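call fold(seq) -> tokens
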Amino acid sequence: MVCDFRALNTYTLPDRYPILRIHETLTQLSKEKFITSMDALEGLHKNFLTPHSRRLLRINAHCGIYEYLRMPFGIKNAPSHYQRMMNTILPHELSEGWLIIYIDDIIIC
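ret:
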């Protein structure tokens, strides 16, 4: 099911967690001899929502009311939330400089 979350997003306080700038990432990658990339397939959809968030994301359809159990696409702070989660899971690898995480893309160099 596809939903338009623009109205909700206007009332959502922005999460200012930093996401890598693509230009800086490409500059860093241009210095590497070998790189490999992995995509965390549907990574956002792997995150469970809190009960409060589920209530905010309810869908009223002609056949009933539905709630997302996992993070849908289109939520304002989803990319920042996911970036924070990935950086929290792999802090040592990031600090060693051989791993780059851009939301759901993991780059090894």
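The radius of gyration is 17 Å.
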